[in-house]
């Protein structure tokens, strides 16, 4: 813990020699983003023409762009880089520069944040940014603002029936098109899923408690027009929301304080495990990953898969029969191993290597700890060579990422400590 605290206090921002981003490069990445990823359920609330003009506007001294617009712009550039297949020397430095540029705008943005769609969108992208930087407390703070904006804009009450007393609200609801309602529904369910992730991964209280919202599932096409290019996004939404509803049952079970020393508790968990397995089967989660042909579709596919694996591990280990066991169940270890192997194959691509720590933070540290615990507690040392290699790879991956990103050093310290513990089992001191 002392090492983590020391590393956390030495976070630095390399602004002395920022990489060069020419206007042509910026416009190409903006084009790439708008051409490849424009889903109706999660649209950028800024016109493309305005975003394309920002490289010029940033060079005009008397023009001031608000922090909201700049955060959205930098995020579009970052996503555009990840979508661009063209080789780019120094890609990692540019990505980190864009990340740091966003982080430097956060304080000013939060001081002026308002209940607007651009600020809502900025909150979504900064949630991703801060989690990628392992800054869970800032992410939690931003998530709170996102919920406040969503409530003010009616995202929590899209399908609420008027009691006749709020004629203005009813008029506003009637004037909204079904497409607009679907967009609100889509983004609300994204917020609800994030609420569950914060509760499960960081032990935070629910910001979206039951009874505080009335929102149906949207038509996954949003517009009613089924576009083949959004197939993976639609599948991700439907599968991840079913997983969210299952996770909600687990979190509510834990919060309710049901006695864990009863057979009923284990039976409920068995039911939740079966639900996750059914969802994985219904959507062919493992096959989706191999079927994806671009960065965005791959990310959607592995998110379903990693979420499912993590939930299977957590639910299984929560059972009374496993809490009292000296050894980890074989199927739990196998799920952890499978999750890490898929993550390894994904991160071996140079493109992804600069941007993926959030997947470790939200999904992969659970299987990583499971695999490490199995190695440390196992007496089958001659059978664990592949697991040693997998643990060492993840430790090296995080360590390499932390060389360019000081904010990742605390998480690298944890991974390194676990890897050392495993090495001591592999090569015990004589």
Automatic annotation (TrEMBL):
Q: Which InterPro entries match?
A: AtrR-like, XnlR_reg_dom
The transmembrane residues are: 353-376
Q: Does the keyword Transmembrane helix apply?
A: yes
What keywords tag this UniProt record?
DNA-binding, Membrane, Metal-binding, Nucleus, Transmembrane, Transmembrane helix
Per the record, the GO terms for biological process are: DNA-templated transcription
- Compartments in which it is found: Nucleus
Q: Where is the Xylanolytic transcriptional activator regulatory domain?
A: 139-224
Record's GO cellular component terms: nucleus
Keyword Transmembrane tagged: yes
Which GO molecular function annotations are given, in alphabetical order?
DNA binding; DNA-binding transcription factor activity; zinc ion binding
Q: The organism sits in which domain of life?
A: Eukaryota
| Protein name listed in UniProt | Fungal specific transcription factor
| Biological source species | Aspergillus bombycis
The organism's taxonomic lineage, starting at the top: Eukaryota, Fungi, Dikarya, Ascomycota, Pezizomycotina
């Amino acid at each position: 813990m002392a090492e983590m605290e020391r590393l956390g206090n030495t976070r630095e921002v390399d602004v002395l020699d920022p990489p060069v981003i020419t206007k042509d490069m910026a416009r190409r990445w903006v084009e790439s983003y708008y051409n490849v990823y424009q889903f109706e359920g999660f649209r950028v609330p800024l016109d493309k023409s305005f975003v394309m003009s920002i490289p010029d506007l940033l060079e005009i001294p008397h023009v001031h762009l608000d922090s909201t617009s700049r955060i959205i712009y930098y995020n579009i550039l970052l996503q555009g880089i990840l979508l661009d297949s063209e080789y780019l020397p120094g890609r990692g430095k540019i990505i980190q520069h864009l990340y740091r540029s966003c982080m430097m705008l956060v304080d000013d943005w939060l001081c002026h944040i308002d209940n607007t769609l651009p600020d809502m969108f900025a909150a979504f992208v900064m949630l991703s940014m801060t989690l990628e930087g392992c800054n869970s407390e800032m992410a939690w703070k931003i998530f709170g603002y996102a919920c406040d904006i969503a409530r003010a804009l009616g995202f929590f009450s899209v399908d609420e029936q008027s009691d006749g007393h709020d004629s203005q609200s009813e008029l506003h609801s009637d004037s909204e098109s079904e497409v607009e309602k679907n967009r609100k529904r889509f983004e609300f369910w994204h917020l609800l899923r994030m609420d569950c992730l914060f509760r499960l991964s960081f032990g935070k209280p629910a910001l979206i408690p039951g009874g505080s919202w009335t929102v149906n599932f949207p038509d996954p096409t949003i517009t009613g027009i089924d576009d083949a290019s959004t197939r993976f996004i639609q599948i991700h939404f439907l599968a991840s929301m079913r997983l969210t509803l299952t996770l909600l049952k687990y979190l509510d079970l834990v919060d309710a304080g049901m006695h864990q020393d009863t057979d009923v508790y284990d039976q409920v968990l068995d039911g939740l495990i079966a639900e996750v397995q059914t969802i994985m089967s219904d959507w062919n989660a493992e096959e989706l990953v191999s079927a994806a042909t671009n960065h965005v579709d791959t990310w959607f596919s592995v998110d379903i898969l990693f979420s499912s694996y993590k939930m299977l591990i957590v639910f299984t280990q929560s059972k009374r029969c496993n809490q009292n066991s000296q050894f980890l169940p074989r199927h739990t270890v196998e799920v952890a191993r499978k999750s890490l192997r898929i993550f390894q194959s994904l991160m071996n691509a140079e493109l992804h290597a600069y941007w993926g720590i959030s997947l470790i933070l939200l999904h992969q540290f659970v299987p990583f700890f499971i695999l490490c615990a199995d190695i440390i507690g196992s007496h089958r040392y001659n059978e664990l060579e592949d697991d040693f290699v997998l643990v060492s790879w993840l430790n090296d991956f995080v360590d390499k990422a932390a060389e360019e990103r000081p904010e990742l050093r605390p998480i690298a310290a944890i991974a390194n400590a676990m890897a050392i513990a495993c090495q001591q089992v592999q090569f015990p001191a004589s």
